[in-house]
Specification:
Helix 4 runs antiparallel to helix 6 and helix 13 packs antiparallel against helix 14. Strand 7, helix 7 and strand 8 form a beta-alpha-beta unit. The strands form 3 sheets. Strands 5-6-1-7-8 form a 5-stranded mixed beta sheet. It has a 4-stranded antiparallel beta sheet with strand order 9-12-10-11. The protein contains 16 helices and 12 strands. It is an alpha+beta fold. The longest helix is centred in the C-terminal third of the chain and has 21 residues. It starts with a strand and ends in a 25-residue tail after the last helix. It is globular.
């Protein structure tokens, strides 16, 4: 039986949720009917457009652009501040409805999720019928609209949900790829950022179809591992599975939003080292070790990228976490300026279990562990700044944002 995967994406989530809540509170004006945007504080780093109405979009307003640029395009743009606690509430209500339709729901971000609908026909009808039931229930009960993409894997379902908006259902089955996906500009493909688009265009590749028909060895020569990934995506291949939300406290992580756009690998890896120190210290404090390391990237256009690996043996070593994170980073980063970096661990086990697995090669591990424990002890007694790695000591021309607080 072929898989049936839905990707459900809230239309202009933050703006929609603001509008719905204000209507509930008695306001007569629906923010979705005027040129309007949710935006951060323009005096700070987050002074950018977070979500916009359809009318604002028609004026050329884009998510992620500075407020000043948006106002030049749309002088009558109404700006409202974000209310993240409210958005969490609506996101939870949205996911609760999806859970009524599928036993396997993966929350991909605050406003989008994947549902494995395989075998659910007897309960909700054919995929299209089930998607409309889901979409309409969200609209009728919660007051906002979603787009739903349907396919046999997560990639194609996500691509389908990005077709015409709002309040729509689209399919993108493998047999529809040539007609519906290959004709799109290559920049529309998931995981292809602006930097990659420029390089592909220079190679004469302008559409997803042209990318799909390019010799994969040529792509690997120019993009390394990333070239193989986007080649597979262009051909509609994706083997990732729906990952249900993990139980709390089963993973340790840290992330940071940076006050400047990171555009070079060395700076990114320096930030990853700082994150690895925090994550490793938290694992060691709880006497736990992680089997899986993941790196998350949010670029300057608010595109999310994530990649993970399963380790040969669980670890809480700062160096091992950092080395794994750097390897993941090299595989997926295409040079697009970075706004946020994060490291997340999962499938954690008590250190006692880890020791039973590691019967050989203990000498080097013990040296690393003694060093980590010594650093932890000094910091616990004298503060986190009492001892620092030389590579993380701030310099006048170096990065100013080293993360310190956990997620």
């Amino acid at each position: 039986m072929d898989k049936v995967i839905f990707h459900v994406d809230v239309n202009s989530a933050f703006l929609s949720w603001e509008a719905v809540q204000r209507l509930k509170n008695g306001e007569e004006l629906d923010l979705r009917t005027i040129p309007c945007a949710v935006a951060g504080d323009k005096n700070k780093r987050h002074g950018v457009i977070l979500a916009k109405s359809l009318l604002a979009k028609r004026c050329g307003v884009k998510t992620g652009e500075p407020i000043g640029d948006a106002l030049k395009k749309c002088p009558n743009l109404t700006l409202v501040p974000p209310n993240h606690s409210l958005y969490q509430e609506y996101s939870k209500a949205f996911i609760n409805i999806l859970n009524d339709f599928s036993p396997s729901v993966e929350k991909y971000s605050i406003d989008e999720a994947y549902c494995d609908m395989t075998g659910m026909e007897t309960l909700f009808g054919a995929p299209l019928q089930a998607a409309y039931r889901m979409k309409n229930r969200i609209r009728d009960e919660l007051g906002f609209t979603v787009n739903i993409g349907i396919s046999t894997n997560k990639l194609l379902a996500k691509m389908a949900s990005d077709f015409k908006k709002p309040d729509m259902v689209h399919t993108l089955y493998p047999e529809e790829i040539k007609e519906k996906m290959w004709v799109l500009p290559v920049g529309e493909l998931f995981f292809v950022g602006k930097s990659t688009v420029k390089k592909l265009n220079n190679l004469g590749i302008h559409t997803i179809g042209e990318l799909a028909c390019t010799d994969v060895e040529i792509l690997k020569a120019h993009f390394k591992k990333h070239g193989e990934v986007i080649y597979s995506f262009a051909n509609g291949r994706d083997t990732s599975v729906i990952e249900r939300e993990e139980v709390k406290n089963k993973g340790y992580g840290n992330s940071t939003t940076i006050s400047f756009d990171v555009e070079d690998e060395s700076t990114a890896k320096m930030i990853l080292l700082s994150l690895a120190e925090t994550v490793g210290a938290r694992l060691r404090k709880d006497n736990m070790a992680a089997n899986v390391i993941a790196v998350n990237i949010i670029d300057y256009e608010f595109r999310h990228m994530s990649h993970q690996m399963t380790l040969l043996k669980p670890t809480h070593s700062t160096d091992m976490i950092h080395e794994s994170a750097c390897s993941l980073f090299e595989e997926m980063w295409d040079g697009t300026p970075i706004r946020n970096l994060g490291i997340q661990t999962s499938k954690v086990v008590p250190v006692e279990a880890e020791r039973q697995i590691c019967l050989f090669g203990m000498e080097q591990e013990e040296k690393r562990e003694k060093l980590d424990k010594a650093i932890d002890s000094i910091r616990n007694r004298f503060g986190t700044s009492a001892i620092q790695r030389a590579s993380l000591v701030k310099k006048e021309d170096g990065p100013k944002d080293m993360p310190s607080s956990p997620l």
